[in-house]
Amino acid sequence: MRVFLIVWFGQLVSLIGSGLTNFALGVWVYQRTGSVTQFSLILLFGLLPSIVVSPIAGAIVDRWNRRWCMILSDSGAGITTVAIALLLAIGNLQIWHIYLAVSLSSVCKAFQLPAYTASTSLLVPKEDLPRASGMVQSAQACAQLISPLLAGVLLGIVQLKGIILIDFATFLFALTTLLLVRFPDAKTAAVPVNGKASLWRSALEGWTYIAVRPGLLALLIVFAINNFVFGLIEVLFPPLVLSFTSVTVLGTIQSLGGAGMLLGGVVMSIWGGPRILIRGVFGFVFLSQLCILAFGLRTSAALFALANFLFFFCLPFVNGYFNTILLRKVAPEIQGRVFATLQMIAFSCIPLAYVVAGPLADRIFEPLMATNGLLAGSIGQIIGVGTGRGIGLLFITMEILAILVTVAAYRYPRLRLMESELPDVI
Description:
Blueprint: H1 2-33, H2 36-45, H3 48-63, H4 66-89, H5 95-123, H6 129-157, H7 159-180, H8 196-211, H9 214-242, H10 247-271, H11 277-295, H12 301-329, H13 335-368, H14 380-383, H15 389-410, H16 413-416, H17 418-421
Pfam family, one: MFS_1
Subcellular location: Cell membrane
Keywords: Cell membrane, Membrane, Transmembrane, Transmembrane helix, Transport
């Protein structure tokens, strides 16, 4: 655990630094363009390259030393940060420079995440894997909670240049922690003699490994659907809250979400989890779905604050238990490919949600719930009518469908009994 704790702390510091830069660059773009579309493109460029590159990244992670994969990917992200700082210093920073830098950082992330996750099973005893996963989730929650608050303060003191320099310092710290430790040797995938085609075949092995195990495939489908709904929330939650309250209240509600995620990660790190982890996954998935359902029922700031806190409280348990199951059931020599494939499929639903969220809300659901809308006299009598109520109905509709899929998936024996049917590899 000592080596894991050193690596974990370095990655925590780096996550906070990256969060500072991401927040500050978003503000910089929006202040100079006033365009929500150009602002949202940062989210898109920060996600899509990682999705596209993930299969190849996973295959390479399984062939290379995982510590060096993390070192090189952190270095690549650090170089892009330096490039942004130099362009800003000479007064030549353009919007497209930021899109390019965010895209390159996303490619580095495609290598870093599978290498980091797959390394956990090398560093941590089997019985401590749930706690280690909880610590990883806590680090992400901590960055989500601290970075926006700290960046808002630092922007007024050291401005964008200073924040980028701080981010670079956090990259150096993370690199130092990785250089100071050694990972246990793990069996790596054999490198075939043929060139590119062999690498592609190796990348596809991650999908094959999942596809021939129906329990893992069913769990992946559940996660993909829930990620799609999460993408809708990410886009539509601010407009929904602002339809009945102020920006200050919105910020408070979102901060409570970060606090809930941090508390969930801490609780999981201390507790570990139930004996049968798949029950924990579905229990917390179901609770998170009820929280989203609550967003659509009433325009109450107190209800939104409580539901958002509980929703983010559930996320570390869902993601942590899911990762723990995989670390126990997937052979170490193929973990990079499996995690990369899961990342590609599950995350690919989020950009789709970004694309369809606006049209679904503006052209279909909001007109239905307008004062004189088609559903104003029926559903409108229950959840209300007017601005934002269409988004509320969209949340309710999507969550009812997601809950039905989740219940049906849990009734599937191969998924429900996956932990006993698939042997542990550790």
